[in-house]
Amino acid sequence: MREPDPPLIGRHPVLELLRADSRRVEEIAIIAEGRGPALQELLTLAKSRGVKISFRSREQLTSMAGTPHHQGVVARAAGASYWTFADLLAVPVARGEPPFFLGLDQVQDPRNLGAILRSAEATGVHGVVVPKHNSAGLTGGATKSAVGAVELVPVARVPNLVQCLEAMKKERVWVVGAVTEGGKAPWDVDLTSGICLVLGGEGEGLRPLVARTCDLLVTLPMKGRLGSVNVSAAAAVLCFEALRQRSSGRQ
């Protein structure tokens, strides 16, 4: 299944897409005058990959992008691909590693999804599962925030998140849910075996049924007065804690 993206804008997102999967790029429109070294690097790479290039005025690029904040480049690309859930489960098997997945329960802001994918790619997550409904997908906003991670981290879009978590448990994957209170500190939990870290959406957190499906719950200790952090920040902390444990070989 494919979902078409809006135009991709900005030097870094377009450059990362070219590096990761230039076959998806249908055309790159670059400002005709006043190109700096960064755009010249992008232009050279696009030419070497055989990507169609057009030169436009700043006004034309603004019209294509729908915003003046395009940094002189706009790309038309085919939609990012979703993986099937079965193919996602096969990734750690193929790599010979303990499974490391993320489940996102109705994370609706594409920028949060993109940031989470960025952290997932940095920490070796094998794949991310998102619900088909009431969740952000692999749209232009997520792609821009991910800065190339959309091309590198498998994402499965599923009709029922709880059923997928139950299927993971049958594959000896521990399902670890993140809640704002009442859970163990993540560094007091063994994250070196097969795990799926599950985070809830903005504001509401994990839905009750999803929380009940988890094998155990973790909570990030807070010393401030706000009592919570953005879901993408929480995902980054949990992913890097899992990476720390796995790198040190904790059992």
Structure description:
The chain has 251 residues and is α/β, with parallel strands linked by helices. It folds into two domains: 8-77, Ribosomal protein L30/S12 (60s Ribosomal Protein L30, Chain: A, 2-Layer Sandwich); 85-248, SPOUT methyltransferase, trefoil knot domain (Alpha/beta knot), CATH 3.40.1280. It has nine helices and ten strands. The strands form two sheets. A six-stranded parallel sheet has the order 7-6-5-9-8-10, sandwiched between helices. The radius of gyration is 20 Å and the shape is elongated. The relative contact order is 0.15.
Question: Characteristics of this structure?
Answer:
251 residues; alpha/beta; 60s Ribosomal Protein L30, Chain: A; Alpha/beta knot; 2 domains; 6-stranded parallel sheet; 4-stranded mixed sheet; 9 helices; 10 strands; 39% helix
Give the gist of this structure:
The protein is α/β, with parallel strands linked by helices and 251 residues long. It has helices at 11-21, 37-48, 58-65, 85-95, 110-123, 140-146, 161-170, 208-213, 231-248; strands spanning 8-9, 25-31, 53-56, 73-77, 100-105, 127-131, 155-158, 174-178, 195-200, 216-218.
List the helices and strands and how they pair.
Elements: E1 8-9, H1 11-21, E2 25-31, H2 37-48, E3 53-56, H3 58-65, E4 73-77, H4 85-95, E5 100-105, H5 110-123, E6 127-131, H6 140-146, E7 155-158, H7 161-170, E8 174-178, E9 195-200, H8 208-213, E10 216-218, H9 231-248
Parallel strand pairs: 2-3, 5-6, 5-9, 6-7, 8-9, 8-10
Antiparallel strand pairs: 1-4, 2-4
